[in-house]
Amino acid sequence: MVGPDTVDVARSGMARAMLAPLGVAAAAAAVVAFVAVVDPNEPGHYPTCPFLWLTGLYCPGCGTLRAIHALAHGDPLAALGLNPLAVAVTPLLLFWWGRWTLRSWQGRPVRTKLAHPVYIWAFLVLVIVYWIVRNLPFGEFLAP
């Protein structure tokens, strides 16, 4: 027989399981809101990329703050022009967060592997190729 105590325990377990995904969502929303309000296009608000400062070359993350700012203001084309890799990865991050949230809500175990190692290595290769190409003359369109 399921009593009121059993229901309360189940609800508290579900609430506890939802703390992590909801905490990540709150932190991400706070970061996006901050970047939306504090314009990275204006000098002096954020530090320069250390890799760019040291080498004069763009890293894979260069332009991401400005891309987030553009996305927060509803301008996906400008965001694509600033960092297409960051814009392309955003739906994947949202998908993984949604899957994590759904599994937590259902009380199912959360997978410990993000993806098959082949996909992770392929993504790493993609990031390195992107990093190199955006600093070459023919890849100038990838630079922020």
UniProtKB/TrEMBL annotation:
It holds the Pfam family DUF2752. It comes from the Bacteria. Keywords: Membrane, Transmembrane, Transmembrane helix. The chain crosses the membrane at residues 18-38, 50-71, 77-97, 118-133. The keyword Transport does not apply. The keyword Membrane applies. This is DUF2752 domain-containing protein. It comes from Thermostaphylospora chromogena. The lineage of its organism: Bacteria, Bacillati, Actinomycetota, Actinomycetes, Streptosporangiales.
